[in-house]
Amino acid sequence: MNENSAKKQKSAEFVCIACPLGCRLKVSQTEEGLLVEGNRCKRGESYGRQEFSAPQRVVTSTVRVDGRGCVVCPVKTASPVPKAKVPEVLAAIYGISASVPLKIGQVLAEDIAGTGVKLIVTANMG
Ligand code: SF4
Which residue of 10, 68, 92, 101 is surrounded by the most CB atoms within 10 Å? Predict the structure, then answer.
């Protein structure tokens, strides 16, 4: 065991999704702070740090359309939400229905599941 590995305390591996290259990242907690390896650029370092310490996800789903039977409208969160809150966000989305017409970018909820993030429509429906 070399001195460098002795200082590593906890680590995890991720695939960077910040661009299509998909670099394999290894993030380690060291005595000096987080160490990101395997990234080819600064975006990968930022992604690795975020994913290790507070992972976030954009949530995509659908909402029911009023008066249209089984018809649904696709929606997503306007920005990533904490990964741990995804089940709550989905539960809140399942409770929403919307009336046509619906336009891309239309806000259906200002603060979905208390995340502070908007829920927006991702398809035009008339
Ligand atoms: S580290 Fe940089 S080059 Fe590699 S996948 Fe992430 S964004 Fe792309």
Answer: 92
